[in-house]
Each structure stands twice: as structure tokens, then as C-alpha cells.
């Protein structure tokens, strides 16, 4: 066990980023395919190919999931992932070739680095080709490269966040893992102690209180609409498509335990769920464990981030 989502058999992760422009993408590959579900809770999502994950729809499995920065522009990265998978003949067989099934979601990071540089097809292709089952690199990488948190009082008070991953193995061999890019309007708290790990700074070494600030915030203020937390949870259980969607729904509890507020009108929070099908397990167990590992991954995303462009990281902010 390496402590990341790649502990789940059949799951690989590849990443690419532009450290100058502060944006990137993270690709979760499942070369043998996986039953998938999705749950979108934020009110400002940017997604691609999520409707096909509904249990009523045809396609039964996916071959990769792409998480990217760049706002809606970043959805282009998924085309590069498709290109890489098609070259390797991984996809839905349509008789005259294969069509890789690659759902995707994006977060808003345009105000952190260079607004005119976004994840594109070339970056998605690169990330897909880099995918391995090795431990996932965390921090200012992939889709978390330009991630920030604590923006409810504006970007000048925000802190750097990043990408994190975690996993858990049960005694019966069931393994659940998560990877998350944390880019929330809210603050991040330790789910066990309630301690603030990152959020809106008060300029005096502490944090602004979210609820007090919200009472003073003009509801027409657009300054903090630069968010969205994206995650993939994966497991080695045998789940139906409906159960995979339920696991994605339950996994959102991991975000609610660590990010305050979550699922706002200014977030597009999206969780994908992948099941690779090697073990028997209850969807209740998978969903509950998905929430646990996702909460852990959120904490790791914040703690592994590094300061950039005036945005201090949790590890460097006292």
C-alpha cells in the first residue's frame, strides 16, 4: 500500500502541469475499464460526458477520468486523453474502431497564474501517457497546480492548496482510494479536531471567520467566484452503475467534513466514482469508506501545497 488511489488494482494516475502558468491536469486511467458514477453538488460545474454515467444510459464502463484547471477551456484536455487511449486501442468498441470514454471536470484557476494558458489537448495527452500505478505526487501538481482556498473575502486573502490522495484497505481485501484537487471558496478544517488548516487570512497570522464575513458580504459580490473541488474515488469492488453513482454521492460527505462552506453557488464540486470489480462489497461500506479517504485526501492536498504568487501554504503559514 502506497497510501494513494493507485493502491486500487487497475487504477493508474498521470499528471501534467505548467508551473509558470499555474495550471494542469490529472488523469485517472483504468486500462481494463471500470464501472463509473458521478455526483455533482456544486452549482457552477464544468463537466464533460457525465450524463452517460447515469444508470439509465448505455455505456457500462469508462476508461479514464480527466480533472483539469483552466475553467471550461480546460475541458480540451480530455480530447488529449482520448487520443492517447485510442492509440493504445482502449475504448468502447464501435466496430470500426474504439471510442475511449473519458468523463471530465474542470476547476477555475485563471486568476492564480496566467489566464491565457490552460490545459489543452497536448497536456491531456501527456498526462495520460504518464499514467502509472506508482504513488501519486501531491501538492502543486496536476489539477491542483493552481488550486487555492479561502476566497470568500476575495483572492488577496486566499491561501494555496493543491492535489492530495489517500487510500484504505479492509481486512477482506477491499481497497478504496481517492484523489482530489481542492479549489474551494471555503476554508479547510481538520475533520478530527476542527482546526483550520487553510482559509481566508486576516493579515495578523490568523484566519477570518467565515460566518462573520458572510454577514457583511454583498450577495452581488463576484470576487470569489473562482472555485470548484474535483475528486475521483475508486475501489476494487463489484458495483453496478447505480451503486457506483451512490458511492459518488456518499463520498461527497468527505468534502463536507473538511471544507466549509461546500457546494456553494460559486463551486462546481464534482466527485467521480470508479469500481474495478475484483471483490464483493456492500455499496454502503464502499460509500462510507470513500467519504473517509476523500476527507483524508483533502487534508493532504492542503498540507502538501507550496506557497506561490503571494498565496501562502498551510505548512508555511502560522
Describe this structure in words.
Keywords: Aminopeptidase, Hydrolase, Protease. It comes from Melghirimyces algeriensis. This is L-aminopeptidase/D-esterase. This protein has helices at residues 77-87, 121-129, 210-216, 241-258, 283-303, and strands spanning 12-18, 23-40, 47-48, 62-68, 92-93, 98-99, 104-106, 148-149, 159-160, 163-169, 175-181, 187-189, 196-198, 230-237, 259-260, 270-279. By secondary structure, the protein is α+β, with helices and mostly antiparallel strands. It has a single domain (5-308), classed as L-amino peptidase D-ALA esterase/amidase. α1 packs across α2 and α4 (241-258) runs parallel beside α5 (283-303). It is globular and about 60 Å long.
* CATH architecture label name: 4-Layer Sandwich
Number of helices: 5
- Kindly give the count of domains: 1
Largest sheet report: 9 strands, mixed
Percent of residues in beta strands: 25-35%
- Sheet/helix structural class: alpha+beta
Helix content: 10-25%
Shape: globular
The CATH topology assignment is L-amino peptidase D-ALA esterase/amidase
What is the subunit arrangement here? single chain
The whole-angstrom Rg is 18 Å
List SSEs in N-to-C order: EEEEHEEEHEEEEEEHEHEEH
Q: How many strand units?
A: 16
Mean pLDDT: 94
Low-confidence stretches: none
CATH class: Alpha Beta
Looking at this structure, what is the CATH superfamily? L-amino peptidase D-ALA esterase/amidase
N-to-C span: 32 Å
